Amino acid sequence: MTDMISTKVRFAPSPTGELHIGGARTALFNYLFAKHHNGKFFLRIEDTDRERSKDEFTDQICESLNWLGLHWDGEILFQSNRIKEYQSAIQTLLSGGNAYRCFCSKDLLEKSRAEGVYQYPRTCRNLNENEIRKHLNSGENYVIRIKIPEGQTSYNDIIYGHVTVNNSEIDDFIIARSDGSPTYNLVVVVDDHSMGITHVIRGEDHISNTSKQIQIYKALGFDIPVFAHLPMILGPDKKRLSKRHGAPGVQQFKNDGYLPDALLNYLVLLGWNPDSEQEIFILDEMIAKFDLAQVNKKGAVYDEKKLYWISGQHMQRLGNKNILDGILAINQSWGNGFNIQYQYTVIELLKVRAKSILEFIDQSVYFFNDPEEYDSKAVGKHWSNNSVNDFINTFINKMEAIENWNTEQIEKELRNVAEKYEIPAGRIIHPIRLALSGVPNGPSLFAMMELLGKETCIRRLNKALKLLPKS
Ligand code: GLU
């Protein structure tokens, strides 16, 4: 693909908050596009808003990208270091007659807005040299506005198709504030040009900026990159995903022990339709198959259940050693006092159920400690019948006699007890599971009992007997 050899894209977060799902998806799509085309993926920190930008957010964003494995090429570009370049572009626009000083007071503009005129009425657009000098001499404040020419602005969005905007709908927007600081639309164009960006891939919320930015490209005589606007991510209520929906930031997923591969896999499906039944991908497969032309326009709904499912699938693909490493990275004392074979068997038993390492740790507690508490709903359901006491007592006696303590023998004896009482095995299995683990769900009871060992099982069952109603 020789035409794409020089593909350059960027992810350009503002460090005013941590990396969230939407930002991570934008970063991923940029990364995949770049890697698919053997191009470059750059990181630009848009920190011109000095008040809201924080170094700690920059650090968090970088850490999250690294954790996800979305490593950027070259040095990070910080906009706050590039003020000179922006000033020089503003001067070029001004001296070329493509921008002008606007001396209109805020009050005046607010008044015209109150009268229903939302666009700047272009009052200062045609001031002559003398008028300008007079304003400047009297020390009036001014902003600098771009001069939007007549006509239309069109571009081909890879995802949204052909977009045309009448220039009459584009405001003579501000490119420099009264303190001289450049505005977002100006800096983005200056940077994208000097970084040699070939494709601008960003959220659909930037569509209205794109027609403005094209004006600046044209006025500065720069080549216009290709644009691709990604569909919005929506909450389950079909409104734009926000904190209100409780979607955690990337950092939280990391702290909860999610696998980066699982999160990437989930993110890639937020908009990308791979045109096959396949839903589970690792990064290399995504790079090979990703195509922006297969991204939907329609908003993508954030679905926690799907995320958990994908996460569980990735957990199952992971080797036990990797899971153990992940667990120990969060909790160094996990499995202390139990041999490695025991630890691996716990992992093997739980691996099909847990969706994150943290959940893994939570679910594994009873393999190492006798339960201190019992799930109250399950107690009501499985321990309230007087006869449970008898079942368990009988089963303990049978267990004591087992010589070869293994899954098959344990199951055989339990089924014998069920037969003796003429009840379905479930009526014994559930109360016993609760007694052994304190929780109503878990891996195969018999496999779990084999691992816990005879002595531990009997001790725990005896403890439960004390709590059970007597027949
Ligand atoms: N800094 C902008 C944002 O965080 C992105 C700008 C862009 O991608 O052009 O939304």
Please provide a written account of the structure:
By secondary structure, the chain is mostly helical. It has 4 domains: 125 residues, Rossmann fold, CATH 3.40.50.620; 94 residues, Glutamyl-tRNA Synthetase, domain 3 (Alpha-Beta Complex), CATH 3.90.800.10; 76 residues, Glutamyl-trna Synthetase, Domain 2 (Glutamyl-tRNA Synthetase, domain 2); 147 residues, Arc Repressor Mutant, subunit A. Helices cover 47% and strands 10% of the residues. It contains 20 helices and 12 strands. The protein has a 3-stranded parallel sheet with strand order 1-2-3. Helix 9 packs across helix 11. The chain is elongated. The mean pLDDT is 94. The chain binds glutamic acid. Glutamic acid (GLU) binds next to loops. The site of glutamic acid has 7 residues, from loops.
List the helices and strands and how they pair.
Layout: E1 8-11, H1 21-36, E2 40-45, H2 55-68, E3 77-78, H3 83-95, E4 99-102, H4 106-114, H5 129-137, E5 143-146, E6 152-157, E7 161-166, E8 174-176, H6 184-194, E9 199-203, H7 207-220, E10 226-230, E11 233-234, H8 250-255, H9 260-268, H10 283-289, E12 300-301, H11 304-317, H12 320-330, H13 340-350, H14 357-363, H15 376-382, H16 387-401, H17 407-421, H18 426-437, H19 445-452, H20 454-465
Parallel strand pairs: 1-2, 2-3, 9-10, 11-12
Antiparallel strand pairs: 4-5, 5-8, 6-7
Helix pairs in contact: 1-10, 6-7, 9-11, 12-13, 12-14, 16-17, 16-20, 17-19
